[in-house]
Specification:
Blueprint: H1 2-8, E1 11-12, H2 15-25, E2 28-34, H3 40-50, H4 53-62, E3 63-69, H5 78-90, E4 98-102, E5 108-113, H6 120-131
Parallel strand pairs: 1-3, 2-3
Antiparallel strand pairs: 2-4, 4-5
Helix pairs in contact: 4-6
């Protein structure tokens, strides 16, 4: 059920595809490094922010979403796990959740480690600052 929801919101699992789409659509890539089935702050971020109407409406207009999941209960395909591990290493992810935004050229423009319980409105406000051009 969780993956169907992720797909509905337009979450991709392939960063290269996401970056190509972001470049074409002049959007920002937002990566969510999460332990979707075991990490309480990850679940809270997902429930309170990433599935909220406020976030999804903003995301449709401005973001290409990438889910980088490290689940304990469900098994990812080996190729996906390897890709996720490589991304975590590349972006030096030390904690879950970690949310990273990349501009259309692939440069990191925003990083949030952990989840402080902020509302979808506050989260989107932070994203608006980094996604607005000029």
């Amino acid at each position: 059920m969780h993956t169907a929801m992720a797909d509905e919101a337009g979450w991709l699992t392939d960063l290269a595809k996401a970056q190509a789409a972001a470049k074409q659509e002049k959007k920002v890539v937002l990566m969510d490094f999460t332990g979707s089935d075991w990490c309480p702050p990850c679940k809270a971020l997902h429930k309170n922010v990433l599935t909220s109407k406020e976030f999804t409406d903003f995301a449709k207009e401005h973001l290409v979403l990438v889910l980088v999941d490290f689940p304990n209960g469900k098994k990812l395909p080996a190729e996906q796990k390897k890709a996720n591990d490589a991304l975590a290493q590349k972006y030096n992810v030390k904690a879950f959740p970690t949310v990273i935004a990349l501009d259309e050229s692939g440069k990191q423009i925003w990083l949030q480690e952990g989840y402080d319980g902020s509302s979808a409105k506050d989260f989107v406000a932070k994203l608006k600052k980094v996604t607005s051009k000029g």
